[in-house]
Design a protein that fits this description.
- Helix 4 packs across helix 5, helix 4 crosses helix 6 and helix 6 runs antiparallel to helix 7.
- The longest helix has 26 residues.
- Helices cover 46% and strands 8% of the residues.
- It starts with a strand and ends in an 11-residue tail after the last helix.
- The chain has a domain of 148 residues.
- The protein has a two-stranded antiparallel ribbon.
Length: 231
């Protein structure tokens, strides 16, 4: 037996309180309901539980190191050793593709360590720029730090579609460029990081994914687990 259920829907115009319209829908209960597949919930990366700067200022960055989740001596020995894989790779290869791929590998191996290393190196750079070091040394510190930051930021984009690292690094670089290089950098996050080409490298930023069959860059150069466990 087919049951016809009449449902009356009255649509009231928001433009005129006096005007309204009604339509009658016939629902045939004998018809099979469409099968709707449950959407698969994407797995949330574990690193998202750790704090990120809530803003783009240096004070916002300092706050995250007060978290009990922050590594011990985050701005000391940890910051010095946490990025050894990329530090070694930068000495062995000048290929932008390999540096980009290496950043993705490092982020994939340990996103939490990469998170803390990324921000701790910016914080150490900030402290160094406030020191009495010469301008030449400060310039070199900016170059050295950002040569590490850009492939890691790209790694988070490539692996997790997370652009927060790129945005924060870009924002800080814009301020540092006025402070150290006496010039204002404007534009997108991509264009900002590209300005780190002030030394000798082209720091093109792109979220283009390499082919899945690309061999491990770290293995190619015999680089593995140089950073050790997070303290």
């Amino acid at each position: 037996m087919v049951l016809n259920l009449r449902t009356t829907l009255c649509v009231v115009s928001l433009l005129s309180a006096a005007s309204s319209g009604c339509s009658t829908l016939i629902y045939d209960q004998s018809a099979e309901a469409p099968i709707v597949e449950e959407s698969k919930t994407a797995e949330v990366p574990s690193y998202t539980r750790i704090p990120h700067p809530e803003g783009q200022e240096s004070a916002d960055l300092s706050v995250i190191f007060l978290s009990p989740l922050a590594p011990k001596d985050a701005l000391g020995k940890f910051a010095e050793s946490c990025g050894k894989e990329m530090d070694v790779l930068r000495k062995l290869s000048e290929s932008q593709d390999e540096l980009r791929a290496g950043g993705s590998e490092v982020v994939t191996l340990d996103p939490e360590r990469s998170h803390w290393c990324f921000y701790s190196r910016i914080q150490r750079l900030h402290a160094f720029l406030k020191s009495d070091a010469t301008w030449t040394k400060k310039e070199r510190a900016v170059f050295w730090t950002y040569e590490y930051l850009w492939p890691i930021a790209q790694g988070f984009i490539h692996e997790f579609s997370d652009s927060r690292y790129l945005r924060f690094a870009s924002s800080y670089y814009q301020r540092a460029s006025e402070w150290i290089f006496f010039r204002k950098v404007e534009g997108s996050a991509e264009n900002t990081l590209a300005q780190v080409n002030l030394n000798s490298r082209s720091l093109e930023v792109t979220s283009r994914k390499p082919a899945s069959s690309t061999p491990s860059v770290l293995q190619k150069y015999g680089i593995s687990s140089l950073s050790g466990p997070q303290q």
